[in-house]
């Protein structure tokens, strides 16, 4: 194995905070390196330094044994280092071809003049290379999400042709927004690249790390705590290294004896459908029940939840909450009825950037703590928000810190806190609540959801992985092509295997 | 592995990646303003049977020439997602520069072609200032260009001598006086500029990047592209074309005037929007905006012909702008949850 890149004592400090300390790492051709760590462990910083987005404060990097300074991401690209971002870095109003060559020189656009046909041909060649069937002339915003992800991959993998030596490809949590199908496609690309490239793969899903990597590096608090071949590791040991504590496994479920039919269901949906995504669906959720929805990207699970929250157009069917029919024409009406929704995209729909934790949490229900529901009572808002900050184990220096300063997992806890603040919340919809969360933060989140459900809150939850659904839910419904394809009542002793569930999904 | 390729094939069969269909849809959308133009021409022809005559069409071309130049420049700034309000001030300064440096009846200057170049240079300088203030000092383009608008007007008023400077330069006057096939050189200059900047927008790195800035500026910055340069270039193009417009209008009037651009900003912005160039940036183009400008001129011309007074014309023009924008952009706006 030839050694491609080496970091020697690389460190990074932001002000007084040390994000990365004395990192020694070797990347070799033909090897997939799995990089794991909790949010804030420094793995993103390390990846950004290798990818040229961040300059190290100390130490040096060697590319093929020669010291190198990467001034920017495009500089890294020119050295054959490509990075697949967690969030897409495509320009929506440009064509696929332009996006693929956005950060790379190409003969088809020499001297600042575009020779469109040659550019399209060059892009088509890149897409063909990774067996993707997308028109290079298409405008990116017209593509579906999964297709955009493939374009992103093609864009990064085009660095292969830019340098004569093997490329280095960095994957920053690429799977967190992909469906199982797309993940398999991605893994196939990684297998193909494995021969010729050095790969760094970051994921919170330990199974994926164990599956795809040759070697795993675990980071905690900016330091490397383990660097071992994956053959020497298993899920539990990896989790322990990462979190530093034993994983809490849910006690085996007691089979419920109480007949659920005797209760008025909390939510009773009859024939709910939206435009094309959701075919008429009928289901009921009992008080205190956690219902897990499972499905691939276009299964309609997200749209179903958004329809319940009044965030979809063209919704038909009846919704009953505690036996009373309600009309959910907008999110405002849903909130009024006692329905909360944790959006998949918390940056856009979940939080107010630049505002404090208290302001974010008191956003929706702050007035419930005011005088006569009309005058704001800041002290009461602060008090209740602080209680939830403690209960959710939000890591922050104060309740008045800006939400931007928190890590992703802690931001998500605050967004959840916004709903839990309510005294009249009946139903909570969680749309991919663990996206981008490390296992520790996810456990904190699940613990609070469980305890709220035990007090009577009903929860519908769209999971990122099958494991999560089995971990948290009382009942699982699998959706496929906008309809329900399977149902398992875990509390009644159903124990679907992962295989059963996948079969119902695709 | 076989299983995977099978599922992928099923997916793409079910949801074809609508490259061709999308292309067609987009193309039809861009034809919307053109359809409005044709409808307007037909309506006025039916109402006044001598509307579509050579003479009247030439008159429309003459009146549309300068607005087309202005919208072409403005489109570049609007594509960024910014705005340039300074054109009336720039035209005033450019007009006064031209009339005082070329042969005139107030002073003894006789710069000839260099006077024209100086006037256009004034426009370019205004654009440069706008761009630098917006990108380097990070001031909102709305307030920057509002400021330079009034600076331009102020400079023109200070330069204004005791009497209106009448232009005597044969080069300048020739632009408006020399006709080919019944059309003055102004029309041909407008067409040439339109073609030139259309090509710039679609076939050069600079043009495509200005287009891209309106789509995802942050992505371009992170990619390491010189985004401030693209933005400054867009403002410079806008200022440059406003400067040229000032020269052409002075040539037509035969004198220098601080009020020469009065009332041209609003139609220029409307024309861009009418043509389908979104104020939020990243969508549209100079050809579409130019069609918007022509639509407004046809409307104005037609309304005069059927005897509408200036106030009624304002009301109808405003209503038509609202109507067309409401109808044409509906499919785009329906996706928006927030409208500012």
UniProtKB/TrEMBL annotation, chain A:
Pfam families for this protein: ABC_tran
Keyword Nucleotide-binding belongs to the record: yes
GO-annotated molecular function: ATP binding; ATP hydrolysis activity
InterPro entries according to UniProt: AAA+_ATPase, ABC_carbohydrate_import_ATPase, ABC_transporter-like_ATP-bd, ABC_transporter-like_CS, P-loop_NTPase
ABC transporter domain location: 5-246, 249-506
Keywords noted in UniProt: ATP-binding, Cell membrane, Membrane, Nucleotide-binding, Repeat, Sugar transport, Translocase, Transport
Entry keyword Metal-binding: no
PANTHER family in the record: CARBOHYDRATE TRANSPORT ATP-BINDING PROTEIN MG119-RELATED, D-ALLOSE IMPORT ATP-BINDING PROTEIN ALSA-RELATED
Protein name per the record: Sugar ABC transporter ATP-binding protein
Protein species of origin: Acidisoma silvae
TrEMBL record, chain B:
Keywords, alphabetical: Cell membrane, Membrane, Transmembrane, Transmembrane helix
CDD domains attached to this UniProt entry: TM_PBP1_transp_AraH_like
Subcellular location: Cell membrane
Transmembrane spans: 30-47, 59-83, 111-129, 141-160, 172-197, 209-226, 232-251, 263-291, 311-332
A Pfam entry, by short name: BPD_transp_2
GO CC annotation terms, alphabetical: plasma membrane
Top-level taxon of origin: Bacteria
One annotated GO molecular function: transmembrane transporter activity
Main location: membrane
Topology of this chain in the membrane: Multi-pass membrane protein
InterPro entries: ABC_transp_permease
Name of the protein this chain belongs to: ABC transporter permease
């Amino acid at each position: 194995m030839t050694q491609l890149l080496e970091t020697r004592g690389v460190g990074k400090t932001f002000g007084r905070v040390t994000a990365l300390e004395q990192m020694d790492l070797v990347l070799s051709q033909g090897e997939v390196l799995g990089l794991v760590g909790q949010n804030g462990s420094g793995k993103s910083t390390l990846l950004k330094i290798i990818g040229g987005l961040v300059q190290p404060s100390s130490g040096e990097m060697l590319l093929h044994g020669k010291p190198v300074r990467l001034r920017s991401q495009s500089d890294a690209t020119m050295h054959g280092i490509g990075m697949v971002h967690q969030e897409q870095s495509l320009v929506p109003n440009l064509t696929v071809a332009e996006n693929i060559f956005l950060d790379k020189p190409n003969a088809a656009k020499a001297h600042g003049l575009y020779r469109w046909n040659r550019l399209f041909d060059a892009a088509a060649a890149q897409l063909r290379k990774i067996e993707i069937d997308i028109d290079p002339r298409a405008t990116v915003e017209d593509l579906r999400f999964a297709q955009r992800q493939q374009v992103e991959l093609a864009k990064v993998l085009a660095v292969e042709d830019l340098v004569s030596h093997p490329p280095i490809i960095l994957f920053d949590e690429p799977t967190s927004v992909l469906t199982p199908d797309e993940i398999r496609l991605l893994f196939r690309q990684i297998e193909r690249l494995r021969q010729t490239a050095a790969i760094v793969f970051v994921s919170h899903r330990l199974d994926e790390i164990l599956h795809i990597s040759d070697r795993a590096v675990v980071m905690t608090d900016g330091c490397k705590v383990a660097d071992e071949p994956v053959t020497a590791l298993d899920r539990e040991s990896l989790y322990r290294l990462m979190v530093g504590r034993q994983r809490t496994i849910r006690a085996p479920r007691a089979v419920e004896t109480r007949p659920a039919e005797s209760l008025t269901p909390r939510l009773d949906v009859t024939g709910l459908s939206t435009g094309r995504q959701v075919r008429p669906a009928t289901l009921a959720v009992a008080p205190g029940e956690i219902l897990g929805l499972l499905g691939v990207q276009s299964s309609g699970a997200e749209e179903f939840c958004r329809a319940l929250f009044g965030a979809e157009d063209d919704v038909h069917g009846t919704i009953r909450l505690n036996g009373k029919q309600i009309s959910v024409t907008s999110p405002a009406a849903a909130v009024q009825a006692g329905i909360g929704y944790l959006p998949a995209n918390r940056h856009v729909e979940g939080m107010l950037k630049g505002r404090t934790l208290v302001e974010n949490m008191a956003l929706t229900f702050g007035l419930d703590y005011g005088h006569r529901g009309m005058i704001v009572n800041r002290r009461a808002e602060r008090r209740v928000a602080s209680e939830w900050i403690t209960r959710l184990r939000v890591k922050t220096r104060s309740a008045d810190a800006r939400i931007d300063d928190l890590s992703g997992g802690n931001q998500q806890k605050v967004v959840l806190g916004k709903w839990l603040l309510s005294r009249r919340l009946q139903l909570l919809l969680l749309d991919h609540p663990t996206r981008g969360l490390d296992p520790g933060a996810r456990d904190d989140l699940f613990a609070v959801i469980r305890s709220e459900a035990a007090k009577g809150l009903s929860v519908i939850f769209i999971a990122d992985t099958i494991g999560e659904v089995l971990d948290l839910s009382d009942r699982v419904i699998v959706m496929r092509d906008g309809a329900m394809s399977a149902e398992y009542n875990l509390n009644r002793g159903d124990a679907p295997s992962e295989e059963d569930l996948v079969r119902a999904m695709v | 592995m076989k299983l995977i390729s099978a599922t992928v094939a099923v997916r793409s069969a079910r949801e074809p990646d609508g490259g061709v269909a999308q292309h067609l849809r987009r193309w039809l959308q861009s034809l919307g303003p053109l359809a409005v133009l044709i409808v307007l021409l037909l309506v006025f022809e039916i109402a006044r049977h001598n509307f579509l005559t050579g003479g009247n069409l030439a008159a429309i071309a003459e009146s549309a020439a300068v607005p087309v130049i202005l919208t072409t420049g403005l489109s570049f700034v609007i594509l960024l997602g910014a705005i340039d309000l300074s054109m009336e001030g720039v035209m005033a300064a450019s007009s006064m520069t031209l009339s005082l440096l070329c042969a005139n009846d107030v002073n003894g200057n006789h710069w000839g072609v260099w006077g024209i170049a100086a006037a256009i240079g004034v426009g370019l300088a205004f654009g440069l200032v706008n761009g630098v203030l917006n990108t380097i000092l990070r001031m909102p383009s709305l307030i920057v260009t509002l400021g330079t608008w009034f600076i331009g007007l102020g400079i023109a008023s200070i330069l204004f001598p005791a009497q209106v400077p009448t232009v005597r330069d044969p080069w300048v006057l020739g632009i408006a006086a020399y006709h080919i096939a019944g059309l003055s050189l102004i029309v041909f200059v407008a067409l040439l500029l339109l073609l030139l900047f259309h090509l710039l927008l679609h076939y050069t790195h600079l043009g495509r990047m200005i287009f891209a800035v309106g789509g995802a500026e942050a992505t371009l910055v992170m990619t390491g592209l010189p985004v401030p340069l693209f933005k400054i270039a867009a403002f410079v193009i806008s200022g440059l074309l406003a400067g040229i417009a000032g020269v052409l209008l002075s040539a037509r009037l035969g004198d220098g005037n601080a009020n020469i651009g009065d009332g041209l900003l609003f139609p220029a912005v409307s024309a861009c929007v009418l043509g389908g160039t979104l104020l939020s940036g990243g969508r549209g183009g100079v050809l579409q905006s130019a069609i918007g400008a022509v639509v407004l001129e046809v409307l104005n011309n037609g309304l005069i012909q059927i005897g509408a007074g200036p106030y009624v014309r304002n009301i109808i023009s405003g209503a038509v702008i609202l109507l067309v924008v409401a109808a044409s952009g509906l499919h785009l706006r329906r996706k928006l949850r927030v409208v500012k």
